[in-house]
Every structure is written in C-alpha cells, then in structure tokens.
Amino acid sequence: MRLDVQGAATVRRLVSEAVLIFLTAPSEEELVARLQARKTEPPDALQLRIAESRQEMKRATEFDYVVINRQDCVDQAVADVLAIVRADIAAPTSAW
Asked: How confident is the model at residue 96 (pLDDT cuts 50, 70, 90)?
C-alpha cells in the first residue's frame, strides 16, 4: 500500500502492528533534481511539491524502516523492501 506520511500515521493509529517503510532519495538535492527532471508539474506546483517533500522527510523517524532509493538502483530498493517484508512475516507477532 502506498501512503503519504499522514496516511501512514492513520494506519499506525488503526493497526499498531503495521510495518511502515519510508522510501526516499539519498538526499534532498537528489530528490529535487529528480522532480525537476520529470517535468511533470508547472514551476509553482513543483515548488509546492518540493516543500511538502521536505516536511515529509522530517517525519521519516515515525516509520519502522527507511529505504534509500538510489538513482538507477531500483532493484536494490525493491530487494530491501522485500527483505523487510520477509523478515516481518517470519518474526512472531505475539507470544503463545
């Protein structure tokens, strides 16, 4: 499920055992460069999106894991997420 930080906070409140993964670029500079390179938004909307991203990055500590999605390394990010999911499935959630 893909959520923004507000949605993740809601999930955390409703399903305390949910595992939350924050997916991000290696740095704010790279995130901005990626957003600019996409050219999918007009300049004013892009500036708003960048400002929102900065605020969201400050909340990464609210997540259980942070996965860095490096440029041209999406396979590694996917592998990292899958490893987290597999580890969570394998871990006992409660004592018998």
From this structure: very low
Tokens of 39: 């050219």
Q: Phi, psi (5° rounding) for residue 16?
A: -60, -25
pLDDT tens, position by position, 19-64: 999 999 999 999 999 989 998 989 999 999 999 999 999 999 999 9
- Strand, coil or helix: 24: strand
SS3 (DSSP) at 58: coil
Q: Which residue has the tokens 């893909």?
A: 2
Residue 58 neighbours by CB under 8 Å, 6+ apart: none
Helix (H, G, I), strand (E, B) or coil at 37: helix
CA distance 70 to 54: 17
Residue 19 contacts residue 88 (beta carbons within 8 Å) = yes
DSSP class of residue 22 equals E
User: What's the token pair of residue 56?
Assistant: 């969201």
